[in-house]
Amino acid sequence: MWIVCSHDLSYKAWLENGHHFKGDYEDAEKMLCDIAKALRYLQGQRVLHNDIKPSNILYRRETGAKLIDFGCAQHGPKTRSGRGSPWYTPPEYLAHGYGGFPAEIWGLGIVMIFLLKLMPLPEFSQGWITEDIKLNHKDKTELKDIEHKKGVKAKQAMGAWLTTVRRVRSMLPKNAVAETVYKMLDGYLDTRVQAQELVTHINNQG
Ligand SMILES: Nc1ncnc2c1ncn2[C@@H]1O[C@H](COP(=O)(O)OP(=O)(O)OP(=O)(O)O)[C@@H](O)[C@H]1O
Ligand SMILES: [Mg+2]
């Protein structure tokens, strides 16, 4: 294991002005490039990280970004676990109760809107229990009333969050990183950019 002498992105040294990212555009660009390559590598190994978020990315300007914490990782292509953090969970999890390699790209897309300073660290927003989303995919007659209510509450919270993400996506600025993030936060699985295409796209921009 590599021990990296750098802070994770949720650490106070990387935050300012009400939990906004303190770094600049070049930091965001470098992290997108490094973590996109990490995701391409993992997908090549058929490994899902399942917990892409700022606190699982270590970053230092001199050495770049490293993805850490494989505590939720699984073999792909599908994950049914609900252990990841709610804000980074993709719309397909709400619709079908599972994620996969496209979910990793979505998670990185959410990290990127934080790095582009378009929203504060999502962890400071109202959350929900990811696992509870799956209650909405069970037969209602098999659920206790309290479980059904928990499922509905989580679904509403996630729906509201996805509306916020769609709004931020529609207002992304015109620059190379934001243009890439737009492709990562595509709500449709079939058209969301994939890891290999993402790395190629970034290399072509550079
Ligand atoms: N390889 C590493 N090099 C340097 N620091 C590390 C490394 N792995 C972890 N850390 C430090 O330890 C902290 C916690 O590690 P990790 O994310 O693996 O566990 P966790 O945060 O307890 O899990 P969770 O993300 O589920 O809360 C990281 O934020 C980072 O500061
Ligand atoms: Mg962690």
Automatic annotation (TrEMBL):
PROSITE patterns: PROTEIN_KINASE_DOM, PROTEIN_KINASE_ST. This is Kinase-like domain-containing protein. SUPFAM superfamilies: Protein kinase-like (PK-like). The keyword Transmembrane does not apply. GO terms for molecular function: ATP binding; protein serine/threonine kinase activity. Residues 1-204 form the Protein kinase domain. PANTHER family: MAP/MICROTUBULE AFFINITY-REGULATING KINASE, MATERNAL EMBRYONIC LEUCINE ZIPPER KINASE.
